[in-house]
Specification:
The protein is mainly alpha-helical. The protein is built from 6 helices and no strands. The protein has a single domain, classed as Phosphate transport system protein phou homolog 2, domain 2 (Methane Monooxygenase Hydroxylase, Chain G, domain 1, Up-down Bundle).
Length: about 210
Amino acid sequence: MGFSLMPKGKDFFKLFDKQASLAVEAARFFIELCQSGKFDDANIQKMRDIEHEGDIFTHEIIDTLNRTFITPFDREDIHALTSELDDVVDLIHSITTRMRLYRLTAPDPHLMQFADIIEQSARALAKAINGLKEIDRPRPILDYCIEINRLENVGDQIRENAIGNLFENSTDPVSIIKWKEIYEVAEVVLDKCEDVANIVESIIVKQG
């Protein structure tokens, strides 16, 4: 394929929407796994498939970026947005594989709280990214970004409560190490969602 001088805004927005929808899919599936405790090979593979599909769209966006001269917004923002969004799915996949590796199958109320907040954040993220198609109407986009920031703060509190409860009630040091890591990675997912929201806000400011 040749180098294009024409804007590919529709291509970028379509790809971003698909990438964001995969983050929602991964988050929704993660809730199912937390509820069932079935972090088995089949479900790990299903989550891996979602993560792999996300990688494909990330590479496609970067390839489109490299072949397009005129872009809908700054090139560095496009690259940052797709990379950070890919990290959201990667981290959800990482929690899933660690649950399998550590043989943690019993339903955990704190992880369920994390899963619910992650899913809410992924949905808000998808709506914010979809809103970039109408960047001249920034208020709804910014409202979704504010919601993502709020959910990240909720995640901080869940992590503190979860780890505090862990040290107070668990007597198995190995179990403490395992669950502490799981909680911390879950909170990083929310941090990453906030990073994406910050990029979206930056794009709006530059385009304003």
